[in-house]
Amino acid sequence: MLELSNHRHSKKEKPTEAMPRRKITNKTHISKSDPDSSLAKKEGTARSLRYKVHSTIDADSRVILDSKITTGATHDTKVYLERIKYIKTKYKLNIKEAIADRGYGAINNIKSLNENSITTYIPLFSSRSGKKALEMKEAGFIYDKENDKYICPEGQEMLPVKNKDMGHYHSKAHVCNICPTQNQCSALHKKSGQRIIHRSWDQELFEQEINRMKEPIFHRKLRERMWKIEGIFSEAKNIHGLSRAKYRGLKKMQIQAHMTSATQNLKRLITRLISTFITARLK
Fold it and tell me: Of 97, 89, 128, 92, nearest to 114 (Cα)?
């Protein structure tokens, strides 16, 4: 992700008791001159009105295949599958691997790419994804997939109470009240007196990805992404002026992104042609 800002930051006074801190949202901060820009949240940077560039490159040549401009408030996970589909259709490519940073690591993205025979090297968006149910597994709670229920370490059943996002597995309170290990139970819900486990519908995929993220090849692919794609972002910002929006509105900003990408691609293509020519002359 590359962020663009078309607004200067002004020095603000620190809030005091007489001047309470205001909540900043896209409802309270709207640019009259450029309403397409919106607040973007990024750790370590002040919130300001911005655009985002979502770029995709060919890993071998480092040629930019796509640069999509969105508002600052658009979450990275919302555009990834759309851009992959666009690239496959436009260039008739057989994509075998997809590498991206954590911002694109929604489980639906990973699942969809895997279903299309694309191997992913994308860290899960949240470091907490799937961790709670995995901790319960390590604590001795066994998930019975065939009957969709949990068996606690004391051999008692925990039956599902399902909602939209995940399954909740509850024990019976009167059973837990007489359990000899009640006070040491990691799944005990203090208010209800029941054992409760929250399990995502994609828990198996979460566990699979958590294990893959520990593999050496996964780390190697992410290191490769750092110098390949992040280097291109740095070049675009520091050399070609993409750190600052020169125009207003999504359409004009898209033109700026395309022109910057075209310039970077021409540099790489010329370098490759020169290298090919020199190699041919030396033979």
Answer: 97
Burial class of residue 81, CB neighbours in 10 A (0-12, 13-18, 19+): middle
Beta strands 142-144 and 149-151: pairing type? antiparallel
Burial class from Cβ neighbours inside 10 Å (0-12, 13-18, 19+) for residue 110 reads: buried
Q: Which residues pair with 170 in a beta bridge?
A: 159, 196
The DSSP secondary structure of 4-44, one letter per residue, reads EE-S-----PPP-SSSPPPPP-TTT---SS-TT-EE---TT
- Report the SS3 class of residue 152: coil
Tens place of pLDDT for every residue, the chain, 283 residues? 444 444 444 444 555 555 556 677 777 778 888 888 888 877 767 778 888 999 999 988 899 999 999 988 888 888 999 999 999 999 998 999 999 999 899 999 999 999 999 999 999 998 888 888 888 888 889 999 999 999 988 888 888 887 767 888 888 878 877 888 777 777 777 666 678 888 898 999 999 999 999 999 999 999 999 999 999 999 999 999 998 888 899 999 999 999 999 999 999 999 888 888 888 888 7
Q: pTM (2 decimals)?
A: 0.80
Residue 43: CB atoms within 10 Å: 4
Q: If DSSP states are collapsed to H, E and C, what string results for 76-94?
A: HHHCHHHHHHHHHHHHCCC
Cα dihedral 138, 144, 145, 150, rounded to 10, equals -70
- Chain-centre distance of CA 241, in angstroms? 26
